[in-house]
Amino acid sequence: QMFKQKNMNVLKITFSLLLGLSTLVSSAQKFDGYALYNLQKSSTAFLIDKDGNIAKSWECNNNANYALFLKDDGNLIRQGVVSGAVLKGAAYGGILEEYDKDGNVVWSFTYSTADHQSHHDFTVLPNGNVLLTAWEIKSTAELLAAGKSSTSEKWPTHIVEVEQDGTGGKIVWEWHIWDHMIQDVDNSKPNFGVIAEHPEVMNINVSASGGGGRDGDWFHVNGIDYNAELDQIAFSSRFMSEIFIIDHSTTTAEAAIHSGG
Prior knowledge:
Blueprint: E1 2-3, E2 10-16, E3 23-29, E4 34-37, E5 44-49, E6 54-59, E7 64-70, E8 76-81, E9 94-99, E10 105-110, E11 116-124, E12 130-136, H1 140-145, E13 157-165, E14 168-176, E15 181-182, E16 202-203, E17 221-227, E18 232-237, E19 242-247, H2 252-255
Parallel strand pairs: 15-16
Antiparallel strand pairs: 1-4, 2-3, 4-5, 5-6, 7-8, 8-9, 9-10, 11-12, 12-13, 13-14, 17-18, 18-19
């Protein structure tokens, strides 16, 4: 759910879904105006007022995964569950689409292969580009070579910035947490160092509660936002119980080094 809220008072909203299939009771922060809502595993997005009345709905091509966004021009940006996904972790998505007010697809971008998969959240930049959180696969051999003790593959986080390209999209910037790992167990490996002296990188052997359970979702990143004033990206990790801030004012190459990314 995404709500535009004015204060922290609690408001209970009750509204009937289209076609009278069911009634949803939702506790949310009080807001003045409208709220945007889409149930997971449902293809219908709703814009509702503070009394729970449906002001607008969109019938979308795919079931919702987690997040959606209403633009100033009334268009809806939404991540859906792509068909045939290989990396099926929590809240996996894989397809980003923008719909106009009449429900027509303006552009669509798929980020789902056997090697990478977008999931959970996204955020829209002031220039209209979209930042997606995603997984990528690192094999057991790659993990061991980087100084991590592991008996299974992991799916570390990366972030891609997608720009509309006609009716599709293209990646114009990316950042990978895998580029920013340090370890202190094997001095024969190039990423060896004193962890406490390097807050700009991640301890590859950090213990992430719940990480790598039924799948390789290592950090379980499930929220992302952007600070336009500072040109910084914030994202949250459920398994780490931490929020990370990275700089966005770099090229992709600069984002792969510790001084720039």
